[in-house]
Amino acid sequence: MPVQWVLLLSAFLFSVGIYGVLARRNAVIVLMSIEVMLNAVNINLVAFNALLQETHLMGQIFALFVITIAAAELGVGLAIVILIYRNRTTVSIDEVSLMKW
Amino acid sequence: MTPWVFIGVAVVMSIAAIRLVTTKNLVHGALYLVVTLMGVAVVFLLTAAEFVAWVQVLIYVGAVIVLLLFGLMLTKAPIGRTALDNDRRGFAALVALGIFAVTGTVLWTSFEGKEIQVGHSVTTEQLGTELFTRFVLPFEVVSVLLLAALVGAVILAKRD
């Protein structure tokens, strides 16, 4: 299997995630798009691990770390979203602009 | 047979990802995310990463999606295009297309003719040995970070 296909798929998923982060208004959908971007990075790491026949399996272990950090990020992110919803009864990130100059 | 499986999975998960960022219904978006994440797990299996693939299924499809669905449930969100998308959609599409064009061409031209040879899958035993010998310090640091994130999430979401 050519490695280019895998890399192109991961580049595509990353761009879709960027579109979701920039164009969506709902904070939960923005978090989902961030998850898609992190998964695109994981595909790259695992593909390079298989391509280089890495002896210490660094690509796969780094992918495991990325999955862990993504879970932690999502937990804290959703807690913040729920807190914002409780205080302002909205999760639209366009309306939460208190700290924007 | 492997290339055909990969192409099929790649097409399905690309369509699901696009539907995720364009859908008008948030719960449908979460279900499209399930399809994309399962596709990523299949790609891991095709690139000799068996343990990472099952971790992906357990953590993402099992836990993260449930967390996201709870987030959607606890925050009432309006449904419809104008409520979900902002008015900078064209600009966002331009940025995403630009990034895809640049990274896509760079990756495509740099790795011309390189093939992934999947002889045998990496076993969990190999991965565990590496994780608990060479990478044991980062592993412990990540576990402390998870604990900190857990405590932080509880403190943030707790009613006082």
What is the percent of helical residues of chain A?
Answer: over 70%
Could you give the count of β-strands of chain A? 0
The DSSP helix count of chain B reads 7
Indicate the radius of gyration of chain B in whole angstroms. Answer: 20 Å
SS-based class of chain B: mainly alpha
User: From N to C, what is the helix and strand string of chain B?
Assistant: HHHHHHH
Radius of gyration of chain A: 17 Å
Query: Helices and strands of chain A: which structural class?
Result: mainly alpha
Rough outline of chain B: globular
Proportion of helical residues of chain B: over 70%
**Terminus-to-terminus distance of chain B:** 57 Å
Q: How much strand of chain B? A: under 5%
In quaternary terms, these chains amount to heterodimer
Low-confidence stretches of chain A: none
Strand content of chain A: under 5%
Total number of helices of chain A:
3
Instruction: Give the mean pLDDT of chain A.
Output: 90
Characterize the overall form of chain A. Answer: elongated
Calculate the terminal CA-CA distance of chain A, rounded to whole Å.
Answer: 50 Å
Biggest sheet architecture of chain B:
none
What does the largest sheet of chain A look like? none
Write a concise synopsis of the structure shown.
The complex is a heterodimer of chains A (101) and B (160). Chain A has 101 residues and is mainly α. Helices cover 77% and strands 0% of the residues of chain A.
Describe the structure.
Chain A is an all-alpha fold and 101 residues long. Chain A has helices at 3-23, 27-52, 58-88. The mean pLDDT of chain A is 90. The longest helix of chain A has 31 residues, at 58-88. Chain A is elongated, with a radius of gyration of 17 Å. With 160 residues, chain B is mainly α. In chain B, 78% of the residues lie in helices and 0% in strands. The longest helix of chain B has 25 residues, at 50-74. The radius of gyration of chain B is 20 Å and the shape is globular. The model of chain B has no long low-confidence stretch (mean pLDDT 88). Classes of the chains: A mainly alpha (101), B mainly alpha (160). At the A-B interface, helix 1, helix 2 and helix 3 of A face helix 1, helix 2, helix 3, helix 5 and helix 6 of B.
